[in-house]
Amino acid sequence: MAHFDTEYQRLEASYSDSPPGEENLLVHVPEGSKSQWHHIENLDLFFQRVYNLHQKNGFTCMLLGEIFELVQLVFVVTFTVFLANCVDYDILFANKLVNHTDSSKVTLPDAFLPVDVCSARIHDNVFVIFILVISGVFWLHRLVKFIYNVCCYWEIRSFYINALKMSMAELPYFTWQEVQARIIEIQKEHQICIHKKELTELDIYHRILRFKNYMVAMVNKSLLPIRFRLPFLGDSVFYTRGLKYNFELIFFWGPGSLFENEWSLKSEYKRGGNRLELADRLSSRILWIGIANLLLCPVILIWQILYAFFSYTEVIKREPGILGARCWSLYGRCYLRHFNELDHELMSRLSKGYKASSKYMNCFMSPLLTVVAKNVAFFAGSILAVLIALTIYDEDVLAVEHVLSSITLLGVCITVCRSFIPDKHMVFCPEQLLKVILAHIHYMPDHWQGNAHRYETRDEFAQLFQYKAVFILEELLSPVITPFILIFCLRRKSLEIIDFFRNFTVEVVGVGDTCSFAQMDVRQHGHPAWMSAGKTEASIYQQAEDGKTELSLMHFAITNPQWQPPRESTHFISQLKEKVHREATGGQQGTAAENHAFTSTHSLQSESEPRSLIANLLAGPPSLASLHLGRDSSIINHLSIGVSEGTSALRSLSPLSTSLHLRGSFPSARLPRPDHPAVAAGRAMAGSGTDARTVSSGSSAWEGQLTSLVLSEYASTEMSIHALYMHEMHKQQSRGELSRHTWHRQESDESSESVHDDVEAIRNLPRSSTFPFATTPSQEGAGLQSSSQRRYGGTTESLCGGPRVQRTARMPMGGWSEEPHTGRHHDPVPEEGSEDELPPHIHKVT
Amino acid sequence: MNCRSEVLEVSLEGRQVDEALLALLHTILLHRSTGKFHYKKEGTYSIGTVGTQDIDCDFIDFTFVRVSSDELDRVIRKAVAEFKDALGNSGSDGMGQISLEFYQKKKSRWPFSDECIPWEVWTIKVNVVNLANEQERQICREKVGEKLGEKVINIVEVINRHEYLPKMPTQSEVDNVFDTSLKDVQPYLYKITYQITDSLGTSVSTTMRRLIKDTLAL
């Protein structure tokens, strides 16, 4: 009826206003495309560039850095050629006399050969010409790339300035989370991505980290051949930049790779039908790439050696201790990385763990070596002292042959020796140190716990945290070893790789094909031994190892408090948070296991501020009102000062609740608190999980810079607590159940079984979801929680019996929070279904 | 990637290919065309009128509506005819796909050519079947008609969803969004491409282009 009304009125209006015959019945105003940022073609690249520009601190820094890299390259090559061909070493070493007329001093220019001789020598040497040509081509390639990059990044720069309203000067002081919030905000007006009205944080992460997530997942499922059992060295890991580059070349972007373009897997790889044929094709590709590597090996090797020489010699001379220092290995970075964790997040986490880790490694000084080193250092030291004393007395001593070199050598020798002598004041407490490390790195194999003092543990940790010297050595060896790994190890895995990409790729609307692990869906990839019992429906093949799904989910939720997870994940997060907070408050007697960790953390690492702060909190001094006020009063003023219990203070640490306070939209923040703060906190947290996010996503997306920085700092602490807690729970669970379990192992895929080694197999022993949690009587609240867990497990179990819920498990989950796009993908090829009976399936996410 | 893609699939007899494809393409274009814009001085514009026209198919029990623009019809017919020829010549079992891609142009600075960024791609997969006798043809004739009706409703549903469309341009930018070459109607910029099943694997040119792009983006 309303329809008729309007039509009637319109007719009348048109008659009265503009009589027929006149041309402009209706006049429109063009919206015009005011911004050029709508509908960007390649969002993956776009977001990656936005991120890179942010990480490199703005356009100028980046430009300068790139230019210097180009210059460096020219320098390295020309300088090497010059040293090899244009220097008369006889003059330098004074084996030949210079016939100068005026002075007897030898100057540096004297040692240079004349230009014509020099160029003649270069012309005659085919090898040098060859190197020059190769590096020339390489350099030109870099130059073209550089120019291309400048053009692209110029666009990103104007995106920052015009769309995000951030000037390049202040860019280094914005956190990534702020930049991201602004991107999400402008999506609403510019429609960068046309599939959705709104972007989520996860979409952006997915796009930036698409391939990295695959790599993390492949390392997690031990698919890549990077662990080797060598005859003398035992179990060792070899993963270098060259190898990584080759993996990426093969899988993601090289010619004929599995991916069609940045965002979609080729369709034939999504079907199970001809997996054998595809595996054959992949293995022959790997063979070719391996052979190409072999052919290019000399060139790469020379380059690596030159590069290492020029970049490390100076450093080693300046501080020889660097060889004894350690760094996180490439494998470690892959193993420790969460799904959806950006580079800077990972690096800051690992850097925080660095000190504790090197302390831990230093605990294991060999006593024998120490004795030897002490004495060598003594003798070397005495000679050095005499030489130095003599030099101070009369510097002509330096002119004596080899005095300067022996001083340098002795110095190096002493530094090396000193690195073998443990600190006098160090205490051997590996177990506690490992706990502290765990708080930062978040992952560690189960069998480390309780075995921290053993050499095996140390050796395994050394795989993650290797000597810098070993790192350099591996990089140097990499060009030689890489082709063989490709040809002999990776090729054998080609079928598994094909299966992996088919089974673990989901198509998310607005994002494209991503690794399904990166969805962090507890139900699809959860591991029952990692607190997702009863929630997960994953077979062993689908479970992420080491609790990666669960920890990644927590990590992502904590670093991106605005993100709105899907329903099950929200449930998981809030449940976990609730438990952690209950533990935190309940454990004031010091019974809860992770409380031990914190007090020890406190004593070990009092230099890191937030940690000791939390330790204080947990130990229970009620003097936190000041902190509470300090953080909140700047933003709101209605918070009562009377709330000074440990819990509430802890809560205020959580970025979630702060964002609540910021918006003042959380009713219970203003309500008088119940007498038992623990319960209240738990409930509040559970509620806040959903409320805060929905509210905040709608309101203005960014606050003052300070707040966000503060938030992100505390977020990492909060994550540490959760990681420790989850490991603790996991330990208790697996301890409790080692005695009783034999469960349908037959569900596992045969390919997955071959992958796991024994240790992992023990860890992976599946458990029934109804299995009760191990309860420690001393933990208050634990009983309650276990019973609720059991009930939950029970209900899902019974539900899962019905076919209806089974289907919901298969139901697409992905483009979360968006309206369901039904009928979006008309699955056009009906016979696909029949091919899909092969192992799992590819989930279509719509 | 940043573009919607819709897939339609039809299986029909060889002589029906023309009409079926015309029906689908015209239906899509009907909803993706406007009247000509007449810009005024003060930056506003008015939209000209577009007529529609019912077309009856000879080989299918089906009638569809198209924009009554002979020029547009000629362009589409040409593309469809080419596709049909290629399909006939391919010698394979008559599988192919034709896609209608709507894009917009983005002006870029001098060293690069203008980018054409697609925002919606309709892919119609065609499967040609051979029928034995007149009886079957009769059935097929009806069936294909029904199928086409469903597809048309499907298309309308998709188009009715409130999703991204390029913003209405100002006079200077109108060529970046609309195809202004036709006299009586103004569709969004579109491109019709086709592939026969044999060459469904990546063609040489795309591989080469990717290689160059990859080396640049290293």
UniProtKB/TrEMBL annotation, chain A:
The answer to keyword Ubl conjugation applying to this record is yes
Name its cellular compartments: Cytoplasmic vesicle, Autophagosome membrane; Endoplasmic reticulum membrane; Golgi apparatus, trans-Golgi network membrane; Late endosome membrane
- How does the record classify its membrane topology? Multi-pass membrane protein
Query: Keywords assigned by UniProt?
Result: Acetylation, Autophagy, Cytoplasmic vesicle, Endoplasmic reticulum, Endosome, Glycoprotein, Golgi apparatus, Lipid transport, Membrane, Mitochondrion, Phosphoprotein, Transmembrane, Transmembrane helix, Transport, Ubl conjugation
Residue ranges with Polar residues bias: 766-798
InterPro entries, per this entry? Autophagy-rel_prot_9 (IPR007241)
Instruction: Give the reactions, separated by semicolons, that this protein catalyses.
Output: a 1,2-diacyl-sn-glycero-3-phospho-L-serine(in) = a 1,2-diacyl-sn-glycero-3-phospho-L-serine(out); a 1,2-diacyl-sn-glycero-3-phosphocholine(in) = a 1,2-diacyl-sn-glycero-3-phosphocholine(out); a 1,2-diacyl-sn-glycero-3-phosphoethanolamine(in) = a 1,2-diacyl-sn-glycero-3-phosphoethanolamine(out)
Residue ranges annotated as compositionally biased, kind Basic and acidic residues, are 737-761, 818-829
Sections of the chain in a coiled coil: none
The UniProt entry's GO CC annotations, sorted and at most eight, read: autophagosome membrane; endoplasmic reticulum membrane; Golgi apparatus; late endosome membrane; mitochondrial membrane; phagophore assembly site membrane; recycling endosome membrane
Main localization is membrane
Q: Name one Pfam family in it.
A: ATG9
Q: Where are the stretches annotated Disordered?
A: 679-699, 732-846
For this entry, list what GO says about its biological process: autophagy of mitochondrion; lipid transport; piecemeal microautophagy of the nucleus; protein localization to phagophore assembly site; reticulophagy
Highest taxon of source: Eukaryota
The transmembrane segments are 59-84, 122-140, 286-310, 368-390, 402-421
* PANTHER family xrefs: APG9 AUTOPHAGY 9 (PTHR13038), AUTOPHAGY-RELATED PROTEIN 9A (PTHR13038:SF13)
Q: What does this protein do?
A: Phospholipid scramblase involved in autophagy. Cycles between the preautophagosomal structure/phagophore assembly site (PAS) and the cytoplasmic vesicle pool and supplies membrane for the growing autophagosome. Lipid scramblase activity plays a key role in preautophagosomal structure/phagophore assembly by distributing the phospholipids that arrive through ATG2 from the cytoplasmic to the luminal leaflet of the bilayer, thereby driving autophagosomal membrane expansion. Phospholipid scramblase involved in autophagy by mediating autophagosomal membrane expansion. Cycles between the preautophagosomal structure/phagophore assembly site (PAS) and the cytoplasmic vesicle pool and supplies membrane for the growing autophagosome. Lipid scramblase activity plays a key role in preautophagosomal structure/phagophore assembly by distributing the phospholipids that arrive through ATG2 (ATG2A or ATG2B) from the cytoplasmic to the luminal leaflet of the bilayer, thereby driving autophagosomal membrane expansion.
Q: Which family does it belong to?
A: Belongs to the ATG9 family.
What is this protein's name?
Autophagy-related protein 9
Q: Which organism is it from?
A: Pygocentrus nattereri (Red-bellied piranha)
From TrEMBL, chain B:
Q: Does the keyword section mention Nuclease? A: no
Report keywords, A-Z.
Autophagy
User: Which Gene Ontology CC terms are recorded?
Assistant: Atg1/ULK1 kinase complex; phagophore assembly site
Q: Which domain of life is it from?
A: Eukaryota
Subcellular location as annotated: Preautophagosomal structure
Biological-process GO terms, alphabetical: autophagosome assembly
Q: Which GO terms describe its molecular function?
A: protein kinase binding
Q: Which family does it belong to?
A: Belongs to the ATG101 family.
* Protein's name in the database: Autophagy-related protein 101
Upper lineage is:
Eukaryota, Metazoa, Chordata, Craniata, Vertebrata
Gene for this chain: ATG101
